[in-house]
Amino acid sequence: MSSRAESLSPASFARSPLMRAQLVEDAPVATRSGSGLPIELRGVSKAFGQREVLKGLDLTIEAGEFVVVVGRSGGGKSTLLRLIAGLERPNAGVVAIDSQPIVAPPQAARMMFQDARLLPWQRVIANVGLARGPDWRRHALEALAAVGLADRAEEWPRVLSGGQRQRVALARALISRPRVLLLDEPFGALDALTRVEMHRLLENLWREHGFTAILITHDVAEAVALAGRVLTLREGTIALDLPIPHRRQRRAASEAELAALRARILATV
Length: 269
Fold this sequence. Notes:
Blueprint: H1 17-24, E1 39-48, E2 51-61, E3 66-71, H2 77-84, E4 92-97, E5 100-101, E6 109-112, H3 124-128, H4 136-146, H5 162-174, E7 180-184, H6 192-209, E8 212-217, H7 220-226, E9 229-234, E10 237-243, H8 247-252, H9 255-266
Parallel strand pairs: 3-8, 3-9, 6-7, 7-8
Antiparallel strand pairs: 1-2, 1-4, 4-5, 9-10
Helix pairs in contact: 1-6, 4-5
């Protein structure tokens, strides 16, 4: 698979989402060089008690790829993501980012969950800048601008919609300029229109900043809409490894062609 990337610059975070969408939506990804890191799993197994969730998994994800993992509940999707995030350790095998075995949560990776997990007693800007690094307010405002919420920086999380809370969670992940972004069904609880908006926002940010993205979902339509590559997990192993056409090609594809893609994925879940 080809690398998809673009260099990060602090000024790019201040650009409006609509302007960014016009600039990057259809740009040829192959011309960009970016900050994403490669991920590799070799012979990875993970069990909880007597139940083996992942079985001798081998997987290579190139720097800057957008990979979507599809599977049934309990099929090992979230476990795979937690291994890459350093939140779990494999029983066997090696998980590595940029050829470095993961023994603790890597600084280069950030994870986003289905629940935004915002602190209700902190304002939006404070939720984004939780790490409180140098000049954190400026960086938090830049990250909020990237997701279209700079004007809500001083609000309390309780007044935001579900989609806005997920945008805040995405801004919190972006503030550290991650080179790997891990997404565990972050749009599952959103309504259909908000989900489409979040898809477009995430894809534009990925194209602009070039991080490696791995998204977990049970929604095959979401997988086809976002992925450059779809993996399906079944009984702890990879049942399908399928490249997905570029966005421009997907727009030109007929509904029958897209339906065939979705059917092929569903057949292996």
